[in-house]
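User: Need the bound-state model for zinc ion:
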Amino acid sequence: MVNVNRKEFMLIAAVILSKPISGESAPSKITIDHAVSNSDLRQKFIDQLVEKESSPYVLSVDYDHDYLKLLEMALDYGNTPEFWQGLRQAGINNKQDLLDFVKSEPMLIADIKQMLVGSKLENAGAMNSHFHLGSYDFGQGKKTKVLVFKLPFEPYKIAELHEIDYTIGSEEIKPILIHPTEESVREVLHHEYTHAEDFYKGIVMTNGLRIGPDNYNSINPKVMNFVVEIRAYIGGIHYTEQFGRDHPAFIEACHMCKGQLKKYQTVLNQITLNTFERQLVQQQVKEIQKVMPLIEIGQRNTLMLHPY
Ligand SMILES: [Zn+2]
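Assistant: Bound-state model below.
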């Protein structure tokens, strides 16, 4: 039995009463609109989504607005003595020193962002720690960390609409944008969860082809990227179908998958594949063919979105 005197009881009561009782007085639920307009609320928004849909293969999901968490993550992986040797001369002795230094130098942050312009990461909505930084652990039961960048909270441009006014002969170009929805951010998480599961377990394709720790490093990284990305994008189409085939998240998933296919067509045409790699690509193409009818529906339904 705990002995509480009157004064203590009053203190405890005051603490309990000072907390909001229902969701009415405090914004207990962060909506997508809150998260889009205020980047400070995005971590909480993501936490809410992760609470409802988590992955046993993911250690953490963090929002990274300025790529500083990515820098921190990269330092964990690229922690070599040579790297620190040069920094020590500048008085930077450990990771925290370096992060503090970067944060105190706005120009340095600008430089880091500049480095990312046009890189794969700048165009990435999110990333998975292992795939990008420590892929030597593939298929060995390792959980990954996920970083979500700002892209999923910005409009996604899928096409341009050319409106021609024949009376005066002028042409107006209007981008067709898909505005972020809670469901589209959930799709981004689902995409990363797919990578995390593949990374944890290794991959067994439907025809029995296996990618595991023993053969991962012998596969051309471009082929490997094609396989894991297309698996995740196909997964995104199936995942968002539950929201309706006219839902912006489904339409966006279809466009993104199609865009990736185009990109990889070019990439894969430039390299020579060995027999196993060719089998992997052929099997993945078969998987794509199964979702082509859905992609076409998504593209057709784009017309139902309003251009902005
Ligand atoms: Zn991906």
